[in-house]
Write a structure and sequence with these properties.
Layout (H helix, E strand, L loop, with lengths): L23 H19 L4 H22 L3 H16 L2
Helix pairs in contact: 1-2, 2-3
């Protein structure tokens, strides 16, 4: 490469691609939970059980996201909050 060749502009450190905050996985979850809850209730499942099941699924999903992100302290806080909520405090 000669020193007279034009320089290719490089991306600066201030230009980064940030992922979108609301994408297809979030939209799927936001739509599927109410649809699944309605379908379970229409098949005869009591509403309290539907809320318990879907709440547990949501808590497990949140715990998996936090654990995959490496946030042990956050995971501990989440577990404590779930236990307090389950105890009714």
């Amino acid at each position: 490469m000669s020193s007279n060749s034009p320089r290719v502009p490089r991306c600066g450190t201030d230009r980064t691609d940030t992922p979108s905050r609301f994408g297809a996985p979030q939209a799927f979850t936001a739509v599927s939970f109410p649809v699944l809850g309605a379908a379970l209730h229409m098949t005869g499942m009591p509403l309290e059980d539907v809320f318990l099941l879907l709440g547990g699924c949501g808590a497990l999903g949140a715990a998996a996201v936090v654990a995959a992100g490496g946030g042990r302290r956050r995971l501990g806080g989440l577990a404590a909050a779930v236990l307090r909520a389950a105890a009714g405090k």
